[in-house]
Amino acid sequence: MNIARSTFYRRRKTRNPDRMKSEADLRDKIEAICLEFPRYGYRRVTEQLKREELRVNHKKVLRLMKESDLLCRVKRKWVKTTDSRHHFPRYPNLIKGMLIRCINQVWLSDITYIRIRIGFVYLAAIVDAFSRKVIGYAVSTALDTTLTLQALRMAIVARQPGPGIIHHSDQGVQYASEEYIAELKSHGFVISMARTGNPYENAMMESFFKTLKYEEVNLCEYETYQDVVTRLPYFLEEVYNQKRLHSALGYLPPNEFEEAPLNQENNEIPRQTLLTLSVQS
């Protein structure tokens, strides 16, 4: 019959019922994680499973996510929101290549837009460069200094910082205005600014806004200003700061990273895990 001898001796393959159940349970857990964090890739899903004390290989997670069509596909784009055409003084970039050793060493600031049904609203945010934690934010329909001042004052109230913190932003008029600079100087901030038209010199904020757009804004499809002011604080405080795993923090959420015993003592971490603010020239 022209059949190979190996065919005769080959045992019929059967699927192990226990293995099938185990894989189905794992798939359910992966789907639950992807439902809560729709933009998680397979690496973050794997780390979340490990946090739930499940031993699983990232290749298996990738396979199951492919089979269930749970892999996110995102498009990257950058929209300019900075108006640098002004007469106010500009300050040099002080953080290029800097080693970030502790909380309240560098605060990063920037503005992004959020699309609603009848136009745009604007979000100003301040992030601690050490922990990636959002410490201040404000939402407004006007792109002005009042917006950035509200975010700054929220961060100051939350952190109660001492003098010497580097405040880094772009050269937009909202950050270079007399009112904003006076507020910074009154609290002892050291002022640093990125070069005009170079988003890489505030790359961490660009990364944060990308995450915000892909994991919250683009999924919720805000229609009104009230939708934004109602939903956004929940995402920033309860999801991003409290739950979302950050690869740069060893797959810990910002709050947990700041509360780690090693970070609470002198607000420092070991040299091998120090964060560096490097940018493209």
How would you sum up this structure, described in words?
- The protein is α/β, with parallel strands linked by helices.
- It has 2 domains: 54 residues; 180 residues, Nucleotidyltransferase, domain 5.
- It is built from 11 helices and 7 strands.
- The protein has a 5-stranded mixed β-sheet, sandwiched between helices. Strands 1-7 form a two-stranded antiparallel sheet.
- Helix 3 packs across helix 4.
- The longest helix is centred in the N-terminal third of the chain and has 20 residues.
- It is elongated and about 90 Å long.
Sheet bearing the most strands, described? 5 strands, mixed
Instruction: Using the alpha-carbon principal axes, give the shape.
Output: elongated
What is the share of helical residues? 40-55%
Low-pLDDT parts are: 76-80, 269-273
